[in-house]
Design brief:
By secondary structure, the protein is an alpha/beta fold. 43% of the residues lie in helices and 17% in strands. The strands form two sheets. A six-stranded parallel β-sheet has the order 6-5-7-4-8-9, sandwiched between helices. A three-stranded mixed β-sheet has the order 1-2-3, covered by helices on one side. Strand 5, helix 3 and strand 6 form a beta-alpha-beta unit. The longest helix has 20 residues. The radius of gyration is 24 Å and the shape is elongated.
């Protein structure tokens, strides 16, 4: 099929119309001078957003579900893949920052960096770090809807930790309602529940695990291991389950695992 032609002199006056025509029809236009082709205007290819998540937020309105422990272990697992990782500590208790301070005092170097989140500009702060090539993991406080909304809005993936107890499953509803509102407002919103401190010896743990199947969730569950409880102030080493979580996230989003 012969492409449409336009003279270079005419192009000076018709450029906006020509660009619009190329965009709408998808057909190239050849620019000529003295009847000879000298250039071709072709349809642009829209830039595809990267499937690899750059910002992960761990959120729950309920406290005591293990957000900081999961944050630090997930950050270490991502860092093992060669990514440069930053943890943004948005919790009033600054547990992640204290973890880093204890590690530094013991001469331990974490495989990622922890820095305080600026609550007034959390979304901009996270996005700027991601644009600079960092993978950002946000540790959020309990009972703070505004911080949760900010973290969840800017995140590529939102993880919601929950413990395998009846009370925790019941309290999960308030967090999921808030996330459902964000999902309705945002064109691309990804969230999943992650079951934490799973003990296969307890019947309630299996009941809770089954109850979560009616919600968006990760298949990977984080077992209850003493190693997770003892590692505060050190570099996380028990990372198998967290590598599985990262691989599951990448697989769900179509990124390279």
């Amino acid at each position: 099929m012969t492409s449409k032609r336009v003279g270079v002199r005419s192009l000076r006056e018709e450029l906006p119309e020509v660009l619009r025509e190329v965009s709408e029809t998808g057909q190239p236009v050849t620019v000529t001078r003295h009847g000879q082709p000298m250039a071709t205007i072709v349809p642009g290819v829209p830039a595809q957003p990267s499937a690899r998540p750059r910002i992960i937020a761990l959120t729950s309105l309920k406290g005591g579900v293990g957000k900081t422990t999961l944050t630090m272990h997930l950050a270490a697992a991502i860092a093992q893949t060669g990514e440069s990782v930053v943890v943004l500590d948005a919790d009033e208790e600054v547990s992640a920052l204290r973890w880093q301070q204890h590690a530094q005092a013991e001469g331990v170097t974490l495989p990622f960096r922890v820095q305080a989140a600026d609550r007034n500009s959390l979304m901009r702060q996270a996005r700027q770090l991601a644009q600079a090539g960092q993978t950002v993991v946000i540790d959020t406080p309990p009972n703070n809807r505004e911080v949760l909304k900010s973290a969840a809005t800017v995140a590529d993936v939102v993880l919601v930790p929950v413990l395998p107890t009846g009370m925790d499953i019941d309290r999960l509803a308030t967090t999921l309602e808030l996330l459902a509102d964000l999902e309705a407002a945002l064109p691309r919103f990804n969230y999943a529940i992650v079951l934490n401190r799973f003990d296969a010896r307890k019947g309630m743990a299996h009941e809770a695990n089954a109850a979560l199947n009616s919600h968006p969730r990760l298949d990977t569950v984080v077992r209850s291991l003493s190693a997770y409880e003892k590692v505060f102030g050190g570099s996380p080493t028990e990372l198998t389950q967290f590598r599985e979580i990262w691989d599951e996230i990448l697989g769900a989003m179509g990124g390279p695992a």
